[in-house]
Amino acid sequence: MKKWFLVILVIINTVFVSCITNKDVVYLQDHGDGTDGIPVLRELPKPYKVQVNDLLSINVKALDEELTRIFNPVQTTSTAGGNNGQSQASLYFNGFTVDDHGKIKFPILGEITVLGYTTTEIEEIVKKELLKQYFKETAELFVTVRLPGVTYTVTGEVNGTGIYTIFEDRVNIIDALANAGDISLTGNRKDILIVRQYPDGQRIHHIDLTDIKAMNSPYYYIQPNDIILVKPLKRKVIGAGQTVMQNFATIMSILAGMTSIYVLTKSL
């Protein structure tokens, strides 16, 4: 009988320890290590540098609009300010894709190397080449180069896996996850994986979103084409419940099963 009692105690302890607590689900907690409230970012994220397969929107303006017509795609109603999905599709056909050699093909100017440059630097490169090859030096040109928002992928223990685009220049990882329906209750917020593209290949980074120090991480702000992977908590893997009541139901089921086995063995 003592053995059965010890087994029951072990089961109860294991299941209740497996409950998901506030420490597992609350974002940006201050763990009392001297940080008073939200920490000030040490530095803003560095400007994004264009990678292979990025899609660029380039617009050229001048006093004489006829001279710039060839450089700018026709603006449809959806592109000018309607449905975001249609705008994205339009840009896919009318924008400039960075090829495997880090170049784009621009009207009149031909191939331009953009790999490793920021959008501000590309604006200066395009403007310089336009003045050199097409416009007069005295022409008043205005060139804008933009990325079509931040496109990223979310998968794993979230409420809405998929590929998303947020039409902002800077997007932090919490905004990105909220846009995907947030992490489910059984998702591991303490070890989020970010797969990021670099010129020499992909790398995997880790960030703990339950710690307020995450705001100082270089991976707090996501980049275009990032993949965010959310792993399940270990307690989900072992099949434990998410709440005390669920765990209580699990205990009762186990005890009922053990009682049946005990009665059967005694009657034999």
From TrEMBL:
UniProtKB keywords: Membrane, Signal, Sugar transport, Transmembrane, Transmembrane helix, Transport
Record-annotated Polysaccharide export protein N-terminal domain positions: 45-145
GO terms under biological process: monoatomic ion transport
Origin superkingdom: Bacteria
One annotated Gene Ontology cellular component of this protein: cell outer membrane
Keyword field contains Hydrolase: no
Protein biosynthesis among keywords: no
TM helices/strands, residue ranges: 244-264
InterPro entries: Poly_export, Poly_export_N
Molecular-function annotations in GO: polysaccharide transmembrane transporter activity; porin activity
Pfam annotation, one family: Poly_export
Protein's UniProt name: Sugar transporter
Organism: Pseudotamlana carrageenivorans
